[in-house]
C-alpha cells in the first residue's frame, strides 16, 4: 500500500515536471573552472555592484565567452551552452569572492575578541554540510546574476521581467557535494529525527535543519536576485539607525499583564524554530567597520557580504563614543530543494518544528554530545550545594561567552545562543532538569528499557510539554484566546486529527526576519532576582549580563532566585518603544557601547529581500495604501507623520517598521499585519508537524491516558518540579500575580496539576516494540 502510494507520487511528479516549459539539468561535477572564460567588460558595473569589489581586480581573468556566444533566434534566448557557461562562470565568481574574503582576514581585517560585533556571530564557524550548501547557493546566485546580465544585454528580457522569465525555466545546479539524495525513503519511525528529515514522508526535507525559509510574498531585492533593496525612486532606503532612533524611542514601559517569563518563553521558542546564521570566512566572523566602528571600511577592504549600518553624525548616543559604523553581515543563503537558479533564499540553521531542538540539538552529532548515554539522560553538572543539575560547560568558553574570569560558567546546550542572557540559560536548564527527572521516573517504571528507549520516550514527553505550554498557555495569552480558536491554532479536544501533509512547516521568512522580532519591544531593561519568600527584589541591568550566565550560580539559591524573579518581574509593553539596553548597548561586553538590535532587525529584513509593509498589508487582507494617509486605520496620526518624514514613498516602508507601528489587535500584543503572519506560522507549525503531540490515530500517537496527563502540564509545574526552593508560583506563570492569578503552593496539585507518568508503565514485552 505504502509502496503503491510512493509509485503514484513519483508518477505525479514526473507529469508535473514534464509540463514545465524547459528543463535543463546541469551537473557541475568535475567542471573545469579554468575553462570559465567570460568577457565581463560590458557587464562590469552591474555585476560588480552585486558581487562585490573582488571582480574589480579579477574581471580581467575572464575571457570572452559572452562575446563568442551568439544567441540563435530559433534556440530561444536560453541554450544549454549558455547555461553551461553561466554556471561555470558563476562558480568561478563565487570561488574568487570566497578567496578574497579569506585573504582580507589574513591581512588583518578581522574582528576583535569580546567585541559586540564578534559576539553577534554566536559561533562564527559552521559544520561541513552547512558550508557546502552555502557555497552551492553562492554559485547559484552568481550564475543567476551572470545569466540575467547576459540576457538583458542580448535579448528583450529586462531586469524587471527576468524573474518572471526565470520562473518558467527549470535550470538546476546539481552539486554532488550537497550530499542530499534526491529521493529518500522514510521508514515508519516512532520518534522524530533530530534534524527534522522525514517528518513529512512526501516532502522529507520540509522543516529540516538547513532548509530555506519559505515565503508568502515574492522577494524584493534591488536587482531581483540578491542585492540590497532600494527605494522606489532608485535611491537608498532610509538609514536603519535613523529609523531606530526616531521611531523606536528608548523607553521601557512595564507591562501590567505579562511577566518577564512571557518574554523569555517567546525567545526560547524562537530559538527552537528559527536561526539565521551570518556569512563567515574560513577564519571566522567578518569585519565591515574600521577599527572600533570609526567608519565603514573602504571598498578595497570590504568583504562583499558586508552590509554595515552607518551611524549619522548627530546620533545622540554613539556620537559620544565616535562610533560611525555598526558591523552587519548578510545571512547565509541556501540552495532551493531542487537547486534551481533564482533569487536568494536564506537558510534556517535549526529544525523549524517546535521539537525541543534548543535542548536536544538539530543534528545527530550535537544530540549525541549532549547525552550521558546512561538511563536516557542528558549530561548535567552536579554542584556540591545543589540537588539539581546544571548545563554542562562548553568546550571553548572564551569563544562562546563574555566572562570576567575562566571559572565563571558558560554552557553548552542544543542551541548555540543559550548563553545570550541568563534568563534564556535558565529556561534551558529547567528543561535539562525536566528531561532528567522524567528519564529517572520512566526508568523506575520500566527498569528493562535501554538508554535509547528511555532517551527517546523522555524526549517525546518533553517536546509534548513544550508544545502544550506554547499552544495552550503562551499563544492564547499573546495572540488572544478567540483568535487562537478561530484560526485553529490551538486544538481543543483531546486528540487533533488535522495533520496536513501538504502544509509546509518551514519558517516563513517574514515571520523570522520581521513579525516575531516585534517582541524585541517586550524585552525589559532589567533581570530580577527574588529571594525565597518573594519579599525582596534585586535588579540586574541586562547589558551587564549578555553572554554571561554566572548570576545563575553565584550561590546555592541563585538559580531559584532568578526563576522567582522571572515570574514576579514584568516584561515591557508591546509597543514601538525599545529599551536602550537593546538599541545602544546590545552585547556591549567591556565596551561602553554595543549594537542596535532594532537597526539590525530593519537591515535584516532588507538583507532577506522581504516585500514591503504595504505588500504585506494586502496579503493580510488590508487595503494597500496609496498614500501615507491611507495607513490611518492601523497607525496613529503622529506615527504616520513620522513615517512620512522618513520615507519617500508609502511603498518603501519596511515590513518590520510598518508592522511594529500598528495599533494592536484587541486581545493580541500584535498589530493586524504581524498578527496575521504570526498566526499563519503557528498554524503551519502545528498542522504541518506529523509528530505534533496531540495528533491522534498515528503509530506514534500517545495513548489517551498519556495525552490526558501531558495536557495537565504548565510552565508553573515545570518550575515547581525542577527547582529546590521555589515553593509558590502563580498558576499562569506568563501573567503577573493578581487577585485573578494568585500564587499557589507547588504541592497544591489541584491548582497546579502534576503530570503522572504511571501511564507510561509498560508490560515487559513492550521492551521490543
Ligand atoms: C534579551 C532578549 C533578546 C535579545 C538580546 C535578542 C537578540 C537578538 C539578536 C542579536 C538577533 C539576531 C539579529 C540579526 O542579526 O538579525 C535576534 C533575532 C531574533 N529574535 Fe531576538 N532577542 C531577544 C529577545 C527576543 C524575543 C523575546 C523574541 C520573540 C518572542 C525574539 C525574536 C527573535 C527572532 C524571531 C529573531 C530572528 C531569529 C533568526 O532568524 O535567527 N527575540 N534577536
Ligand atoms: Ca526546532
UniProtKB/TrEMBL annotation:
Domain of life, source organism: Eukaryota
UniProt GO MF annotations: heme binding; metal ion binding; peroxidase activity
Keyword DNA damage among UniProt keywords: no
Keywords per UniProt: Heme, Iron, Metal-binding, Oxidoreductase, Peroxidase, Secreted, Signal
Record-listed heme b binding positions: 520
Cellular component, GO annotation: extracellular region
Record carries keyword Metal-binding: yes
Principal location: secreted
SUPFAM superfamilies recorded: Heme-dependent peroxidases
GO annotation, biological process: cellular process involved in reproduction in multicellular organism; response to oxidative stress
Pfam families: An_peroxidase
Localization annotation: Secreted
Stretches that traverse the bilayer: none
The protein's name: Peroxidase
UniProt lineage: Eukaryota, Metazoa, Ecdysozoa, Arthropoda, Hexapoda
Amino acid at each position: 500500500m505504502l509502496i503503491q502510494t510512493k509509485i503514484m507520487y513519483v508518477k505525479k511528479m514526473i507529469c508535473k515536471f514534464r509540463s514545465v516549459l524547459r528543463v535543463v539539468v546541469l551537473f557541475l561535477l568535475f567542471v573545469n573552472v579554468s575553462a570559465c572564460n567570460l568577457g565581463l567588460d560590458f557587464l562590469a558595473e552591474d555585476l560588480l555592484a552585486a558581487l562585490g569589489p573582488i571582480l574589480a581586480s579579477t574581471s580581467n581573468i575572464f575571457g570572452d565567452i559572452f562575446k563568442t556566444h551568439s544567441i540563435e533566434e530559433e534556440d530561444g534566448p536560453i541554450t544549454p551552452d549558455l547555461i553551461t557557461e553561466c554556471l561555470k562562470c558563476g562558480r568561478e565568481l563565487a570561488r574568487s569572492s570566497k578567496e578574497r574574503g579569506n585573504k582580507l582576514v589574513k591581512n588583518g581585517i578581522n574582528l576583535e575578541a569580546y567585541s559586540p560585533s564578534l559576539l553577534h556571530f554566536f559561533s562564527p564557524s559552521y559544520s561541513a554540510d552547512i558550508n557546502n550548501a552555502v557555497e552551492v547557493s553562492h554559485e547559484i546566485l552568481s550564475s543567476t546574476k551572470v545569466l540575467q546580465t547576459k540576457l538583458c544585454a542580448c535579448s528583450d528580457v529586462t531586469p524587471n521581467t527576468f524573474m518572471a522569465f526565470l520562473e518558467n525555466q527549470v535550470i538546476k545546479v546539481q552539486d554532488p557535494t550537497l550530499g542530499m539524495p534526491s529521493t529518500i525513503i522514510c521508514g515508519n519511525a516512532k520518534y522524530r529525527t533530530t534534524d527534522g528529515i522525514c517528518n513529512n514522508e512526501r516532502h522529507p526535507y520540509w522543516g529540516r535543519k538547513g532548509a530555506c525559509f519559505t515565503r508568502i510574498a515574492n522577494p524584493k531585492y534591488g536587482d531581483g536576485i540578491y542585492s540590497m533593496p532600494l527605494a522606489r525612486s532608485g535611491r537608498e532606503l532610509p538609514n536603519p539607525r535613523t529609523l531606530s532612533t526616531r521611531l523606536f524611542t528608548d523607553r521601557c514601559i512595564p507591562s501590567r499583564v505579562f511577566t518577564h517569563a512571557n518574554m523569555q518563553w517567546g525567545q526560547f521558542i524562537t530559538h527552537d524554530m528559527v536561526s539565521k546564521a551570518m556569512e563567515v570566512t574560513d577564519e571566522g566572523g567578518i569585519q565591515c567597520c574600521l577599527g572600533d566602528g570609526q567608519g565603514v571600511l573602504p571598498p578595497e577592504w570590504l568583504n562583499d557580504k558586508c552590509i554595515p549600518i552607518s551611524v549619522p553624525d548627530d546620533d545622540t548616543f554613539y556620537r559620544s563614543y565616535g562610533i560611525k559604523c555598526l558591523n552587519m553581515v548578510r545571512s547565509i543563503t541556501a540552495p532551493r530543494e531542487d537547486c534551481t537558479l533564482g533569487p536568494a533564499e536564506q537558510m534556517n540553521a535549526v529544525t523549524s518544528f517546535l521539537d525541543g531542538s534548543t535542548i536536544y540539538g538539530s543534528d545527530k552529532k550535537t544530540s549525541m554530545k549532549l547525552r550521558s548515554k546512561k538511563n536516557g539522560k542528558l549530561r548535567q553538572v552536579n554542584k556540591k550545594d545543589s540537588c539539581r543539575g546544571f548545563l554542562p560547560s562548553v568546550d571553548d568558553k572564551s569563544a562562546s561567552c563574555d566572562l570576567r574570569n575562566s571559572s565563571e560558567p558558560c554552557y553548552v546546550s542544543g542551541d548555540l545562543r543559550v548563553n545570550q542572557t541568563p534568563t534564556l540559560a535558565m529556561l534551558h536548564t529547567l528543561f535539562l532538569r525536566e528531561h532528567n527527572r522524567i528519564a529517572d521516573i520512566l526508568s523506575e517504571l520500566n527498569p528493562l528499557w535501554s538508554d535509547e528507549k528511555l532517551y527517546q520516550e523522555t524526549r517525546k514527553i518533553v517536546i509534548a510539554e513544550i508544545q502544550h505550554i506554547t499552544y495552550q498557555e503562551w499563544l492564547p495569552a499573546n495572540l488572544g484566546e478567540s483568535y487562537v480558536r478561530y484560526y485553529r491554532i490551538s486544538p481543543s479536544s483531546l486528540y487533533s486529527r488535522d495533520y496536513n501533509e501538504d502544509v509546509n512547516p518551514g519558517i516563513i521568512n517574514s515571520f523570522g526576519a520581521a513579525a516575531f522580532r516585534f517582541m524585541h519591544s517586550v524585552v525589559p531593561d532589567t533581570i530580577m532576582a527574588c529571594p525565597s519568600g518573594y519579599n525582596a527584589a534585586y535588579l540586574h541591568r541586562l547589558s551587564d549580563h549578555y553572554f554571561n550566565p554566572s548570576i545563575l550560580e553565584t550561590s546555592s539559591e541563585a538559580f531559584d532566585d532568578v526563576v522567582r524573579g522571572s515570574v514576579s518581574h514584568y516584561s515591557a509593553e508591546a509597543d514601538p518603544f525599545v529599551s536602550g539596553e537593546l538599541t545602544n548597548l546590545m552585547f556591549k561586553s567591556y565596551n561602553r557601547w554595543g549594537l542596535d538590535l532594532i537597526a539590525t532587525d530593519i537591515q535584516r529584513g532588507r538583507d532577506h529581500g522581504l516585500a514591503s509593509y504595504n505588500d504585506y498589508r494586502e496579503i493580510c487582507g488590508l487595503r494597500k495604501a496609496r498614500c501615507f494617509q491611507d495607513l490611518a486605520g492601523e497607525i496613529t496620526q503622529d506615527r504616520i507623520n513620522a513615517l512620512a518624514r522618513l520615507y519617500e514613498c508609502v511603498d518603501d516602508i519596511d515590513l518590520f517598521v510598518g508592522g511594529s507601528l500598528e495599533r494592536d489587535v484587541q486581545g493580541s500584543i500584535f498589530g493586524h499585519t504581524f498578527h496575521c503572519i504570526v498566526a499563519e506560522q503557528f498554524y503551519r507549525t502545528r498542522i504541518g508537524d506529523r509528530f505534533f503531540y496531540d495528533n491522534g490515530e498515528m503509530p506514534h500517537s500517545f495513548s489517551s491516558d498519556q495525552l490526558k496527563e501531558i495536557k495537565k502540564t504548565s510552565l508553573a509545574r515545570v518550575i515547581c518540579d525542577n527547582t529546590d526552593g521555589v515553593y509558590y508560583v502563580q498558576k499562569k506563570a506568563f501573567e503577573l500575580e493578581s487577585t485573578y492569578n494568585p500564587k499557589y503552593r507547588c504541592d497544591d496539585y489541584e491548582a497546579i496539576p502534576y503530570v503522572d507518568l504511571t501511564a507510561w508503565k509498560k508490560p515487559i514485552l513492550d521492551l521490543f516494540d
